[in-house]
Design goal:
Number of domains: 3
Oligomer: single chain
CATH architecture of the largest domain: Orthogonal Bundle
Strand order of the largest sheet: 2-3-4-1-5
Strand content: 5-15%
CATH topology of the largest domain: Arc Repressor Mutant, subunit A
CATH superfamily of the largest domain: Winged helix-like DNA-binding domain superfamily/Winged helix DNA-binding domain
Structural class: alpha/beta
Number of strands: 12
Radius of gyration: 25 Å
Shape: globular
Helix content: 40-55%
Length: 466
Amino acid sequence: MFINREYELNHLEEEFLKDTARFVVIYGRRRVGKTALIEEFGRNKKDFIYYLADQQSQTQQIESFKQQIYEYTRDDFLLKMRFDDWDQFFGYLSKILPADKRLVLAVDEITYLIKSTPAFTSILQKYWDTFFSGTKIFLILSGSLVGMMLRDVLNYDSPLYGRRTSQIHLRAFDFKHASMFLERFDIEDRILLYSITGGVAKYLLLIEEDSVREFIRKKIIEKEGFFYQETIFLLSQEFKNPNVYLSILKAIALGHTKLGEISNFVGIDGKKITRYLDVLQEIGVVMRQVPVTEDPLRFRKSIYHIEDNFLDFWFRFVMPNRSRIELRDTKGLLDNVMDLMPDYASATFEDVSMEFLQGAGREGRLPAQFIHWGRWWDRENEIDVVALNRNTFDILFCECKWRSRKAGVDVIAQLLDKAPLVNWFNERRREHYAVISKGGFTKKAVEFAEERGVLLFDLKDMGEYF
């Protein structure tokens, strides 16, 4: 099942049509769909070699790669050859691979090769410079260990720096495209499931159950469930010593979102904890947030949140209850998780609401065009979604209510009262308002909104868009 990725596929096809050698790097967290993208791109390519690396020794990796090359070249002498290292292997490839054909050579999970042979990137650079760059090869390097990909493949210090012709940072699907995996569920359950899995393709494909409750029971809080140990596996692959990172993510998931709060929870000095947070931001696990009206470089009261929905869910509900899960004492735990899901999913509902409003803007359904999107808060107040256009001085304030009862006049009135607290071009701006409510609106709220030009949306509106 291959969904979307139209932009990335189009980019690869455009690169493929060029006459010179191409060197494309694809990276992104595990399970996000990098392999599927490469396979879809190579589906109709006549000259296509795909090698999936794994955690073997260098000798075994070369043997596996050699077999894939043989399947394409049918060079019997290649099978008889024994290569002591990658230098010898690439030296032989430079003699047998065609220089005048548009050959796609895809090396997936290259970080395993770098782990077993740190000099691999230097060797590849040597043969790119002396052979591959003068051919019509289309080289793809793909990797899931984002930190290693940034450091050893893309970074300025990497031997491969300056060789790539393009790169694709493959990210999780947004809610609109994730919904394509979840069409049998209604919009409310899709939001709940997205709050657990995020837009990670593999996770979405694993949703085989008929309800959110059964999915959590079978796949997450049973010892044998796919997701139970998933976070430990992910972080152990990314970091040699994941314990501090585990503690930081647990702190954030439990609501300790300010730098000082995280530092106190983990028990590490603020300056040192910042370095760990920088790494988590670099690999796309954690995001530093500031109010959308503020300058991120100057604002000092930022907060941190876990950008990956699955990791956020796991640290909120699985990690604190691992002893119970190990003892299979999960009936009460499942009830507890389901009771807390409405509160937990409210943050995801705000993200989905922002995506919905952005889509409405593209369709011309908003009173202005907005460029910058985010949240706003001060010490006592917050507004769920605020969007700005610094060219036209338009500003949109939106409140998101993830609750079953209908939103009343008070919700709209509170939003109108909070808007003047936002200090942003106060004398010049044009203000716009919206409220998105899961439970809909009372008749009085609808009348109140119409009188004041406040846009109202509910789950039915969202379901029609998504």
